[in-house]
Amino acid sequence: MDCVIPGSVDMSKVKFGAQGGDDCKHNFSLLQDAFIKNGITETIPVEELINGDFKSNFEILRWLKAFYTANVKSEEYDPVKARDGHDISPILASPQSRGPTQESLHLYTEKWKKTFDWAESSTLGDHYTFCCICNRNLSTIHKGLFDLRRHMKTKKHMKGARIAKSVGLQSLAGEPLPCSNAAIRFIHKHCKHGTGDGEQVSSHFARSKLGLQYPKDITSVCQHTPYCVYIYEGVTLDKDETVSVVLVGFFDVEASRHCIRFLDALQSSTDNGGDQTAATVVETLAKFGLPAGNLVAVYSDSKSAASQQICSQLRELNPNIVALGELYNIADAACRAGVKRLSNQAQELMVDIHAHYSSCCTKNDDLKALFGSGITGDSPSFPLNTSCLNFCLLVAKILEIWTELQLHFSSCDKEDDKAKLIFSQLQDPKVRATFMLLEEALKPLHNFQRHMQTHEQAARADLLLILEEASSLLCTYTSCFLHPQAAVRFLKELDAQYLNNKKFHLSSSELSLGGKAVEDVLNESKTAEALPHLQEEALSFYIALTGSIAEELPLTHGVLRSMAQLLNPQSRLKVTGKAVEELGIKLGICISPDEVQQLTSEFLEYQLAEEGEKEKSAVVSLEEHWASVLKETKPTSFFRKLVFTLLCLPCPPLDAQFVFTQALDNVDAPLFSESEPLTESDCDSLPDNALSDNISNEHSSIQIEGLNDLDVIMKPCKVHLIKINAKTDHGEENGPSLKERTIRGGYGWESSLRQTPQARTVFQAGGSSCCKPIAPDKDSLESQDEVEEETPSKPTPRRQRKHVYQDGKGFLTGELVWGKVKGFSWWPGMVMPWKTKSSPLGMRKVEWFGDGMFSEIYTESLMSFSAFTKCFCKNSFASLPVYKEAIFQIIELAGERCGKSFASAEGIKEKELKLMLDWALEGFLPTGPEGFTPIDSAAHLDSSDSSLCNYQPPAKRKYVFKNKANAAIISYNRELIIEKLKKKGTTIEDFCLSCGSSEIEVQHPLFEGGLCLKCKENFTETLYRYDEDGYQSYCTVCCAGLEVILCGNASCCRCFCKDCLDILVGPGTFDKLKDVDPWSCFMCKPSQCDGNLKLRPDWSVKVQDLFANNSAMAFEPHRVYPSIPADQRRPIRVLSLFDGIATGYLVLKDLGFKIERYIASEICEDSITVGMVKHDGKIEYVNDVRNITRKHLAEWGPFDLLIGGSPCNDLSMVNPLRKGLFEGTGRLFFEFYRILTLLKPKEGDDRPFFWLFENVVFMSANDKSDICRFLECNPILIDAIKVSPAHRARYFWGNLPGMNRPLATSLDDKVGLQDCLEVGRLAKFDKVRTITTKSNSIRQGKMGPLPVSYNGKEDYLWCTEMEQIFGFPKHYTDVNNMGRMQRQKVLGRSWSVPVIRHLFAPLKDYFECE
Predict the structure, then answer these.
(1) Annotated catalytic residue within 1208, 1268, 1316, 1359
(2) Which residues of 743-766 are buried (b: 16+ CB within 10 A; e: fewer)?
């Protein structure tokens, strides 16, 4: 205060050494006096501050920070001088506030072990007790035995105790582990990140990581299954001690995955290390009883001679062992061998540049970018000492900035001889040509090495790619310098004489030097005489590199290719019986001719059996496919052994720490055999004042000791979820209702997108004579809602879950999870359905609680929400309000699913949150984690028999080939169109542009050509479907396509597939257009149309005709009402069903209509509030549409106009859980139809009566036909993009005059985004995506940019701007303190004002206007 307003506090009166409450009150009184003197009205809660109330202290600190920021005038303030040098002593806590006394502490004692034989001393100290069954440190300092008793009753402990008892608990406590003491210490160091003090505790911990069955389970598997041995040498244990870690890998059929298990850790020897390690490994395999006959592969991370000695000794046990360590080092070895054969100029230049960069005091940006990737040149052999990957990167970077390097070194100090030398080297065209040769020649090795650097979540299917590329390396490099015949013979015989014999070499002109660019560089500099010398060097380079690859490859290229093809279910038909024979013999599977013949016959049986299951194998993962195959084969099958051998081969990532974690990561199921794993769902319960062991956040500096003492507060949400038991005016109970949350993912949100709000006053005529309303049906009550959201299913009784995600990695739709995103602690979320038909293997779409954002994340970075005690972060909870809100939301949802009530909190959020945390930390009792198991989402999929209803074309990929799951939809060969057009009398109009069929149903609406019946139905259902990137899901021409190119126009969302471009425009068109950036499509620039792809001049009219007449039904035209003379017109009477935010009323008033009565049926409280406030209560709101009876209509009517759009959640094909027209919210359409039938004038009644019904475009053909059949007309399609800045395509059925007329833009319409923005804000796009109720719909693409630039940064659309985009006045939804998301939700469900104005305008000829 003295800093902000100098002199406002008499500093001489301040008691700087305050220790008691009286002194503190004295100081606070001085501060309060200063507030009063300066007119500050903030009240200081003195008592709460002195007593240490967290909320009060936090609020006053936050206020003081804001006060300081707003008022401080000078940053210069000397606090020591201001207090005249007085020392400030911290307030000493009173004895009562220091926590429990020494007498009340419960330290661990050995006496506890007599009562609980599983209780051991903990490495964390006497404040904790170690449970050797659950492998967990329990905080027992506060309640001691009581904590242990409560822990013993948890499900996880009881299950563990039951399993431990079945295998003998004594083996856990007394029997020593068969592995070495070094292994126990290694496990403790790796998993605990420290050394264990107690041998017994370390032994228990190691046992918990290895399992009760160790090593019997490993020995049992390896007795009948091929296995691989991993050896990691030189692993640091202590400062001066290293060990060699031995692991075993095999394929687990039941788990459908490759498993790695820890075997032992061997003490490294300094004397004769290689031989000693090799011998010790052999002894270890014998000690554990692993049969040498089943050892098929070995991987060693060592690149020294020790690795070769280990392999040679193991080959004495089994001569057919494959050493794959050489395969993963092949790129580095070949790169070094080749570079050594080139002149030293290139290498010297790299070394000199790096030396200059290291010694120069002023760092050049180009050099910094060149060496900023961690490449070091301290070694004299640099750059040969670096990896192939880094070397290729360095070469490419140097070439990229070659000119900049010349400029830099030419400007260096003239006395710097080193810089002069570098500049002269850079001026030498021969050196530059050498770099260009290196860049081009090393590309195959570089690509191969990149696949070695797989991320940790990579699928095992990457092994196929590695094997394929390894097999092609020799073919690639021999083709660079050998004649084709010589190359074939070399690949077959691997005889080095073919490499060195000049008669087998290509001529100098045919030798691959890296393209014509190398020759151009030499010719331009007039140094063409250097070309022969470069050709000689290139030849030596290729010979050395190819020889190194041939020497390092563990198997021949043919065997590697056969392995890859055999493992790949998609290429199994390419594998020949001879190749399988070669594999069987090479890998030691078969010995005698009879065994070889049996292997071949078994493989042929597999080929025939699997030939009809291509689609199935394309959906499941590689491991799942082979697991299902192996389950069907006999144990004695040779083919079974061959497949097991291939599946147990090591696959990247092979980083030591990652593999160790994989081998020892049994935290979820400690001490339990594979036959009965203990999952995270059996979550443990901890004391009230303790969290899980070692919960921390390495990025946070805040440390909080206990949860009970944590009394934190965050700003409350403006909209809070409240259970309401309300009664209607008639006294009938509606039952519990839910109020919407601002962020999806809250309490009960999965019940449906819209719920019954609390009861409200009903405005209706003759209310006293109305019949008693019928209680609404719970599962179908809906308001108008937006379909672009993925709608979750309605909760049903729990039952066995089905795998909606079909990769077998768990985490089903609706499951509550923890997810790890870089830079954050574990964050709570929920698995959402994937938008396309099938998700990428091992990936899930997760919506994060708290902020409502989405991520696509690998399953390896997810954990079940039942692991609450492990993932919950106290620091984030205390310091991040968003994290705290996320915890509140997910526990609230879990409580709803479990039927858990927190009513005792009496609506106080802090109290409720504390109860929630206690419930979660205690294991979600009484139901446990099974209580919030997700519902069976698969059961809610549309069960319609129509193939059209369920058809979805294959998902779009950019420049990527993929198998087309629904390829059967195209049964003709489009490539024959070109040949058929050569016949006289045929035109492109005679063929279907999508499939090539000549059975034309209609003309293609956009391009010259036709569509057959099947393609027409597909076209109408998918033309207006958009992906999250904002582009069409499928090709504009054929509405399918495997590989597409996107229009570069920011306001266009069209895409065109490779087949359409190459067939209809011309061969190679797609590849040419890929290089054009930006490329404007044929719709944006019709002049680009070429070949047989011609845009129709009247395409905008044609597409309307297609959508207006595509129901395959003909109807009688609507009754035409003649215009009414102006003096006879009367005010209009309107009934609006599913009214939303009164768009109809607003448009009618804007058009000048006199409205006699406007009755609206709506259930959303927020929407009703907008209508009531903005239209001065002139709208009469009635109950749920299903409660409107014939008597009501007679009392309220007659009506001149009926409008409405029923909820489209269960109609939209975007919703994977849609129920169709006859179930769920879809059947609310029939309420509109019922009321329309009741309101239609009888024959002979000439009174004009108009109606309008709206719904989504992307619905199934069956549902659309049914709606047309009931309403007896076809719809028109209107996209608001023509009259507003946002897409919004909708179907409209009705009898309004002139509905089919073209949509025209008025002067008042704001058709560009910039027109809708506030001052100072800049539109990055002219048009934007459809705005829905989801916050991320504002982004232009799934992870795309935001549409607005403000103060140089991307920004979301403001609420007023969204209102302008929809055509509403500014601040139209700014009522009742609604938040941003609430306002976006009511807007996202509304109609576009300009479109409704377009439709209503002709009614001015019938009704009285102002």
Answers:
(1) 1208
(2) bbbbbbbbbbbbbbbebeebebee
